[in-house]
Design goal:
The complex is a heterodimer.
Chain A lengths: L3 E9 L3 H12 L4 E5 L14 E2 L8 H18 L1 E2 L3 E2 H4 L7 E5 L2 H16 L5 E4 H7 L9 E5 L3 E2 L2 H14 L3 E4 L3 E6 L5 E6 L2 E10 L5 H7 L7 E10 L9 E4 L1 H6 L7 E8 L5 E7 L10 H14 L7 E12 L6 E4 L6 E5 L5 H16 L26
Parallel strand pairs in A: 1-2, 1-13, 2-10, 6-15, 13-20
Antiparallel strand pairs in A: 3-9, 4-5, 6-8, 7-8, 11-12, 12-13, 14-17, 14-18, 15-16, 16-17, 19-20
Helix pairs in contact in A: 1-6, 1-10, 2-10
Chain B lengths: L6 E6 L3 H12 L4 E4 L29 H17 L2 E4 L2 E10 L10 E2 L5 E10 L6 E11 L3 E3 L12 E3 H11 L7 E5 L3 H11 L7 E3 L10 H5 L2 H16 L4 E3 L1 E7 L6 E6 L11 E4 L2 E5 L2 E3 L2 H5 L4 E3 L5 E3 L12 E3 L9 H19 L9 H20 L14 E3 L4 E2 H9 L6 H8 L12 H11 L17 E2 H5 L8
Helix pairs in contact in B: 1-2, 1-8, 3-4, 4-6, 8-9, 10-11, 10-12
Classes of the chains: A alpha+beta, B alpha/beta.
Chain lengths: 397, 493
């Protein structure tokens, strides 16, 4: 155990975002240490469904990020993995496409308008009729008005994805330190970051990346800056394994409204999808109840009801388990990505809400680019970490 | 009472702790709903043959049958008078805490710092077909959900003919059937002798009882043992039976593998040292059945979901932490029996009784308190005995015997190598992250069978640095989506 260890960058957090930051930073030639108080994927990453979605995002900076990420995910999935395998196979990457359905003509019109705006922003999609829905998903309920098909939507198994990206980062020279808690961020007299203190010692570094997800606000605090990351609870239901009966990521059109919702009340519309292992995932309830871990029976009832409404044959299928997670969100529902002007050497990569798995590679790439002083592939202004400060900018506490 | 009303007390589980609590609470005037998945009260210990079998002497298979019959008479009287509602074949999948809809109507409900009182709602699947769910309401909750048998993996453990020790006994009690003609009984714990004795009395041959623990370790716990002469007599009774039938008991031995092609044909047995590491040569024992058990793990899903604190037991299992009144520290929630530490039926009876008195004192503060001294004494004595047993019968080291391809999670067929690689290559440091990376514990049993094994393997691979946390299962059992989707109904009147 080294008491004083030197590297270019310390990434705080071994979830999906931290793994992507570590991988892209290591591949950019930086020496990287990843530190997490828990295991790999111990927070929100391990509690998510693994959505790589463009379909649920309105035109704007998050959609641009999602499109960049979708392309990067394709590249990652195609990378070789041992004898004849691809990384995509190992992390259960499936470019299965998304199918958003509308229960009536009014919702279908709204959905088609939304899709048209997305097309202008670079999203591929196609409005499908009620008849065509049955061809795409034979077990869908018969009374739907139609939907939109999004071929770019995809899925990974998030814990495996984070673990294997971290493994690749390690193969590229990164050091991964699990079960080690960051307790402080060191700065020099000029206020520049010089490393982190942990419960096991000190790691000197020129930069610290805050990829602590739902706990990103607390890590920012260690660096003396304010970042209002809040938790948004979600439940996912998992069924007994089934033969492949659901081919796409299927969800109801109301979902798009939920993501942008500012309501603290329950907003849920089931995203239903099969997995390579067989179980069907039914997910994405959204509530703001702090870190309350208690099972909410009304919430899981509603998830189940929506899933059965979409796929009536699921009624007899047992839900084997439910799990919950806390999505990290910022007040404007955009992540914080890039250098913090208030604390030189501190970078943020957190606050991705329910989209972190999908947005991880683009986030990692952008963070690596800003770390090395390269021109970022996307304008980072909308993701500035100091955008919530009331007062004018400054290197202040 | 109408079914939408709240009972004073919901008791989940009708084993010894549950029926003793329900009966005692009803004696004191409380209304009780006793909810259980079984067809009659008694739990695993007082299991009975299905009525259709017309067993003439079920008591031959049980210890303490007269005590049980006494409790059953009292319970039946309360059921007849309507003060206890016994809901059989009801499996609780979640307990919810909701605000009491009727302010004023909740004499003795629990108000957290002046807020409105809360009620507990137990959601239960009805019958084996589980085609619907009912909601039962109560002001206080007592969790007596018992325990299930702890399994450890070893090469060959998934062969047909390998059964759990408790399962073999349950089969005998339920349907009067022995699981095989030649049954090796193995593992650790007091259950082994009792299972072996039941088997030989029922006509099976038991070529060996293979006990991992060192009997000399009992010497460290002499005071606790000597305070429990009845327990010693019970144990001596089993030992005497085994002696009469010529059954050899090999202590400090473990089954390292089960052999066979279509079915178990033999087991290999080896001597272990104090830490449970294999030291002696292996020998083979022919058999057609292996009944194996490594103690019990408490069923804590409902309790943990309600936020009840749990701690580690001497044998590595988890148990709820309770006060002298069996209160869990969570407002309105009590626990008794194996959920607060595995200790057997007599201890469960005493704890159930004491929990009921504590609930009565809380719900009816005006009543004079007359908690009997007997269960207090019994609990102290039997808990000391249970701790002593747990200290002796710890989980032996088993990971060294596993081969790369030995399944650790049999539901999802996750081999030992997969779990090792998740820890050494992929960054798992606890059972949850192992599960996420390998699917171990994601199958039908939701890790009830492999959970302890995975925890032990992870601890060993991470040199004990892994933080142990009890498993979380928000759904205590599988629930059909269609049932989950429907609004909860009331139990049939």
């Amino acid at each position: 155990m080294t008491d004083s260890h030197l590297c270019d960058v310390v990434v705080v957090g071994a979830g999906m975002i931290g793994a992507a930051c570590a991988l892209y930073a290591a591949r950019a030639g930086l020496t990287v240490a990843v530190v997490d108080r828990g295991p790999v994927a111990g927070g929100t990453t391990g509690a998510g469904e693994g959505n790589l979605l463009v379909s649920d995002k309105e035109p704007g900076p998050e959609l641009d990020l999602a499109l960049l990420s979708a392309a990067l995910w394709e590249d990652l999935a195609a990378e070789g993995f041992g004898a004849g395998d691809r990384l995509g196979g190992v992390v259960e990457y499936e470019a299965k496409g998304g199918l958003v359905v509308a229960s009536d003509e009014r919702r279908l019109t709204a959905l088609a308008d939304f899709a048209a705006a997305q097309t202008a922003a670079g999203v591929r999609n196609r409005v499908v009729s009620a008849d065509e829905l049955t061809d795409l998903e034979p077990h869908l309920a018969k009374d739907l008005a139609g939907g939109v098909h999004y071929p770019q939507d995809a899925q990974v198994q998030p814990a495996l994805a984070a673990a294997h990206l971290l493994r690749l980062a390690r193969l590229t020279g990164a050091e991964v330190r699990l079960g080690e808690t960051v307790v402080g961020i060191d700065t020099d007299a000029a206020g520049r970051v010089t490393g982190v203190r942990t419960d096991r010692g000190r790691i000197k570094a020129f930069a610290v990346v805050n990829a602590a997800g739902t706990w990103g606000g607390a890590v920012a605090e260690l660096g003396g800056v304010h970042l209002p990351v809040l938790p948004r609870r979600g439940f996912v239901l998992v069924t007994a394994p089934l033969p492949p009966v659901i081919r796409h990521k299927v969800y109801a059109a109301d979902y798009v409204a939920d993501v942008a919702s500012d309501s603290a009340d329950l907003q849920s519309s089931a995203v239903v999808e099969g997995t390579p292992a067989g179980p069907v995932l039914i997910g994405a309830s959204r509530e703001r109840v702090g870190f309350d871990r208690t099972l909410s029976v009304p919430v899981v009832r509603r998830l189940a009801a929506q899933a059965v409404a979409l796929f009536p044959r699921l009624a007899t299928v047992p839900a084997m388990r439910a799990y919950r997670g806390f999505r990290p969100y910022l007040p404007d529902h955009l992540p914080a990505i890039g250098p913090d002007p208030r604390r030189p050497g501190l970078f943020h990569a957190c606050g991705h809400e329910g989209a972190g798995i999908g947005l991880a590679p683009a986030t990692g790439l952008l963070v690596a680019q800003t770390l090395t002083g390269a021109e970022p592939a996307q304008d980072l202004t909308p993701f500035r970490p100091d955008r919530f400060d009331d007062a004018t900018e400054g290197a202040g506490r | 009472m109408t079914t939408t009303d709240a009972y004073d007390l919901l008791v989940i589980g009708a084993g010894p702790a549950g029926f003793a609590a329900a009966t005692t609470a009803a004696d004191a005037g409380l209304t009780v709903a006793l909810i259980d998945a079984g067809h009659s009260a008694g739990g695993q210990f007082y299991r009975q043959p299905a009525p259709a079998l017309n067993a003439s002497r079920p008591k031959a298979l049980h210890h303490g049958w007269r005590t049980y019959e006494g409790w059953m008479r009292r319970l039946a009287a309360h059921v007849a008078s309507g003060s206890v509602r016994h809901l059989t074949n009801h499996q609780v999948w979640a307990v919810e805490r909701v605000p009491d809809a009727e302010p004023g109507g909740s004499d003795g409900g629990f108000a957290a710092s002046g807020d409105r009182a809360t009620l507990f709602v137990a959601h239960a699947l009805v019958g084996v077909e589980a085609a619907r769910s009912v909601a039962v309401r109560g002001r206080a909750l007592l969790l007596a959900t018992g325990a299930y048998e702890r399994q450890l993996p070893f090469p060959g453990w998934t062969l047909p003919g390998v059964v759990t020790a408790g399962g073999a006994q349950a089969q005998l009690k339920d349907s009067l059937v022995v699981p095989g003609q030649r049954v090796v009984v193995a593992g650790t714990g007091p259950l082994l002798l009792s299972v072996a004795a039941s088997l030989v009395q029922a006509g099976a041959a038991v070529p060996a009882v293979v006990e991992a623990a060192d009997p000399l370790r009992y010497a460290r716990h002499l005071p606790a043992l000597l305070r429990n002469p009845g327990k010693l007599v019970e144990g001596a009774g089993y030992a005497g039976t085994l002696l009469r039938y010529g059954v050899p008991v090999r202590t400090r031995h473990v089954v390292v593998a089960a052999l066979g092609t279509r079915r178990v044909e033999a087991v290999t047995v080896a001597k272990v040292d104090r830490s449970g590491r294999v030291v002696g040569p292996e020998r083979t024992v022919a058999c057609d059945t292996l009944a194996v058990g490594y103690g019990l793990d408490a069923q804590l899903d409902l309790a943990l979901e309600l936020g009840c604190p749990a701690g580690r037991e001497p044998d590595g299992g988890w148990a709820l932490e309770v006060d002298d009144g069996q209160w869990t520290g969570v407002e309105g929630v009590w626990a008794a029996g194996e959920t607060t530490g595995v200790g057997g039926a007599q201890l469960a009876l005493a704890e159930g009784e004491l929990a009921a008195w504590s609930v009565v004192a809380r719900l009816r503060p005006g009543l004079p308190r007359n908690v009997p001294a007997r269960p207090v004494r019994q609990r102290a004595r039997l808990r000391a005995f249970a701790s002593a047993l747990q200290g002796v019968h710890q989980v032996p080291r088993f990971a060294e015997q596993l081969r790369d391809d030995t399944d650790v999670c049999r539901c999802e067929e996750v081999p030992y190598a997969g779990i090792r690689d998740a820890v050494t290559d992929l960054g798992a440091t606890d059972p949850r992250s192992v599960k996420l990376l390998t699917r171990a514990g994601m199958g039908w049993c939701q890790g009830r069978m492999c959970g302890t094994a995975v925890q032990c393997i992870v601890s060993e691979l991470t040199a004990g640095r892994a933080k142990a946390v009890p498993p979380s299962r928000p759904l205590a059992c599988p629930v059909p989506l269609g049932v989950l989707a429907e609004q909860a109904g009331d139990p049939p009147g």
